[in-house]
Amino acid sequence: MESKELGKKIRVAIVEDHDIFRKRLTELLGFYDELELVFTADSGETCIKQVFESEPEKMPDVILMDIELPGISGIETTFQLKEKFEEIDIIMFTVFEDDERLFESIQVGATGYLLKDTAIDEVVSSLKEVREGGSPITPSIARKLIGMVSKPKKENSSKSEPEVVPFDLSPAEIRILEQVIDGKSNKEIAEEVFLSPWTVKTHIKNIYKKMHVNSRAAAVRLALKRDIV
Amino acid sequence: MESKELGKKIRVAIVEDHDIFRKRLTELLGFYDELELVFTADSGETCIKQVFESEPEKMPDVILMDIELPGISGIETTFQLKEKFEEIDIIMFTVFEDDERLFESIQVGATGYLLKDTAIDEVVSSLKEVREGGSPITPSIARKLIGMVSKPKKENSSKSEPEVVPFDLSPAEIRILEQVIDGKSNKEIAEEVFLSPWTVKTHIKNIYKKMHVNSRAAAVRLALKRDIV
DNA sequence: GGAAAAATACTCCGTTTGGGTGATTTATTA
DNA sequence: TAATAAATCACCCAAACGGAGTATTTTTCC
Q1: Which of A135, A138, A193, B147 could form a disulfide with B142 if both were Cys (CB 3.0 to 4.6 A apart)?
Q2: How many Å does it take to go from CA A189 to C1' D2?
């Protein structure tokens, strides 16, 4: 855990399209001596522009990023920024609590995920935690995150190795996923497992939902990476 | 988010083998009126016994569970408790930060995961959050959790040596194959690499020929198996 | 300089996929 | 027993894909 020069101010940027909210946040963060607001932006495009134009000593350490933005979304913005500026930590800041956005945010490299009703000093601690290698996450969001890696409880497997199956795919689904990984088409799979092509398709759609992907290629990559097969 | 009868005291139990630590924690939590300590235990066995013998009005809402315990571990204890008392929330409380224990804790049904150096009022907020459907997690732990669901970011390996690639894919083809593995569509890839979608398609067809496959899924599997990326 | 390889762009066409919706049957378990 | 979850089958539609062919421009290397 490499804490980044304690004692130095944390350079913060705010990306938020809602004027009043942005100003209020700016105002509140102003009370904290340990923070230095380097810029605010009201859109993803502006934010990216600002970062590119920032002199090194004004480069933000952490960006508080609204997800809902006019034009490109906060998620897309994060993705683009992380491509070039890997070292900037980005905390998603949103009113939304849905799984998809959370998952996408994580995929594109967001470090934290806070709901907008988070108390201001919680926000400030989060900014610090992020600099120290942590990932501040609103508890209600954390529970969803846990849901993504935990499998709903079932049979007793307390002893020996827990036999970890990421995403809780049913046996039928795993069987089909294996065929998908083998590069077979739905029709081919159907013949292989003696099911109608429609059933195969339904299974695959359910697999996608559970794995949070939307194509065979992505499913294959994830499955191999997580050793599902 | 079903908050459980706000206004009612939260019944808490502490499971911790270290005497001084347990007493100190007990003492500290005593200052909070909104909490009611129903019991403490110094081992998993004792804890389970206590829960089974608890009268309904003394049943804990939340248990702060140390992971390192003499006899059965906090994880095993959690597992056994959750089997019978699904409604009890359990927060793992530990000095350990390793992935395995975190993962196991989640698998057996722990709701939160705090490090022992967490400030006391953070602990108290966590107890409340848990009752409101949240999952309080120490930020440094949360980052590990995120690592479990995120895709590894590509590092820029500035090519110095020729780097042998199975199948002799041209650099352009490898670049495109990487995108295919990321689950992108031809159009998305085209935008990413600034080429027309038709060109991308041509490349992909050539990749298929060289790899002797005829679908994305198959290409992804082969590429990952042979470490092309 | 000239041949070969790679990269680029485009068309036509039929097939496959992914997403949405809905329905029935069989376990399982609360 | 009632509620839930898993597995099965079905249809529609728009978008994406894969196969075949053609053609120009760059690069590379002998």
Answers
A1: A135
A2: 36
